[in-house]
Amino acid sequence: MTITEILFYAFAAVLVVAAVGVITARNPVHAALFLVFAFVNSAVIWLLLEAEFLAIVLVLVYVGAVMVLFLFVVMMLDINIAQMREGFTRYAPLGLLFAAIVIVEIGSVVWVKHLGGVQESAAAIAQDPDYSNTRALGELLYTQYLYPFELAAVILLLAIVAAIVLTMRRREGIKQQDIAAQVAVRAQDRIRIIKMDADKASEQTPATETTAGAPQTEAQR
Amino acid sequence: MNLVPEFAAELLSFLPAWVQAVVWYGVVALVLFISIILMMAFLTLIERRVIGSIQARIGPNRVGPNGILQPFADVLKLLVKEIVIPSSANKILFIVAPLLALIPALCTWAVVPLWPGFTVADINAGLLYILALTSAGVYGVILAGWAANSKYAFLGAMRAAAQMVAYEIAMGFALVGVIMAAGSLNLGDIIEAQRGGFFSYFFWWLIPLFVVYFISGIAETNRAPFDVVEGESEIVAGFHVEYSGMAFAVFFVAEYVNMILISALTSVFFFGGWLSPFDGWPLPSWLAWLGAPSFIWLFIKVWFFLFCFLWFRATFPRYRYDQIMRLGWKVFIPVTLVWIAVEMLLAHYKIGPWAG
User: Fold this and answer.
1) Whether the predicted model's global pTM rises above the 0.95 cut
2) Measured between alpha carbons, how far is B93 from B239 in angstroms, rounded to an integer?
3) Is the ipTM of this complex over 0.90?
4) A52–B146: do the CB atoms touch at under 8 Å?
């Protein structure tokens, strides 16, 4: 066995263990963390296949962004584990059925590939050191697959806009900061400076008048 | 492909090739980590002295001449302190969390070009690797907050998660501009593309992106004025409120290593890394050494940005949380998007650095 094969089997074994952990962990947070671990391990396997761009993007997108938000939500939710397990026996047959369908699908894809004799392209082909996976991928994406790529981007943009529109609603009674309004404020709108003849009031008028004047100025604000 | 330089290959010639590579990179990584941790230790001292001087006081000056041994005294103190694990904490995650914060911070250094022709791992997709690892660093903070089973720690972790995800996007967009200017994801190539002295650094054409990148970097490392994650006036100390002794120190190290990293990356992406600012200038022969690229230039640039970190901390009041979110999503992301469009036009009409 070469060193690459040893590494492959080691990481594949850890990947399988992590994947099993995702579905067996009792605590949802642990399950999410096992999923992160599985992603990291599959990224390493992609690295062994010399697909460094895909490997790094897997870590960047799934580990760095998607799973962080996932974990964020899972941690915030107050999940009742007992309640979650209640329907297990009821839904188990359905789950098994779907699992079987997925296995058959994966198997058929492998079988079809096997028939077509694409065995060779499935194995990693050693490239010369100057070969850049990233460049090759970029060239394909922006020439041959430009339209599908742009379409996918537009669909994603649509999804983002839709998600924002779905959650955006004005609620009454919430204090929100309006920066533009704050910046536009002028002193004249907020305070009014009133001239009062201080010494005249103290000399002549009785005390009742000055006390009557005080609430008035306060109300004017 | 030659993985091991010749002198090391000769020394290790009794070993098989792949063991040679493992030993060589092990030694390189060890030396690199020790130097970064030493730099970080003195950064804590310099931070306290600099902020002290900004606030018109002295700062630590008792341990050793001018307080130079203060970091070692701190380490000693933290080493002998007991690590308390809260009884209702999730023990494994509680211990793993500080490591998850530190390891990505140290691993990112592998692709940073340190001096001409030397990068520990000179990979093609270096910039993506940096983005991937810095985004993985958030796990340490989130898990620390969750595993401690404390409300304050948890609030800190939630803030950290939201803040880091928000600023990562602006950071990524700022780097898209750098990629467009350099035409490469390799950090060495990005530096080479800035050759030609101070005025050909990307900084000049990418000023908005530089500002966004550096401020996002401060937010990403949870430093003041974006340190609501720790926010000692509201949530005591945030995500590491339950940590003590060395476990706390590891978070501390991770934060400072990240600061050094952001400074190094800012100088690589916008200020030509190890290139000399006088590169290619007509210098008299006795000053010719000034134009040569070397590690010293990177070192000076890194310390300049580190000083900025400390300066901002001493100068600005802490942001309110909703204002941080607003700045990240509604200000920085539009700014970067607009500037990428401007850059696109510049590149199309061959203006500025795209003229050649």
Assistant:
1) no
2) 13
3) no
4) no
